[in-house]
């Protein structure tokens, strides 16, 4: 199986300001999806994403999420290749699970496993 980029995410200090900025700049449609989080609808063949308000524990960031069949195996492989686990697998209700790792240069990349895939 290929591992496509299936989601992007932007962590920002001010969700309302950032939402207005991206809506005005790119015409993105944002839909509230929980406290401090909005989904960005896919447009014109592009992928959808999310806009998340950063906290004291979560700095601002931009990342992509790659779809995998097995989060644990993918994280273990990333570590074996010189990366590091940033966030252990966590469930997303009705969607599946996600995890984050850092590549050898410190870039943070997300992994997505859809509901029903092996774990």
TrEMBL record:
Domain VOC: 4-114
PANTHER family named among the record's database cross-references: GLYOXALASE-RELATED (PTHR33993), VOC DOMAIN-CONTAINING PROTEIN (PTHR33993:SF2)
The name this protein goes by in its record: VOC domain-containing protein
SUPFAM superfamilies: Glyoxalase/Bleomycin resistance protein/Dihydroxybiphenyl dioxygenase (SSF54593)
InterPro entries reported in the protein's UniProt record: Anthracycline_SecMetBiosynth (IPR052164), Glyas_Bleomycin-R_OHBP_Dase (IPR029068), Glyas_Fos-R_dOase_dom (IPR004360), VOC_core (IPR037523)
Pfam families linked: Glyoxalase
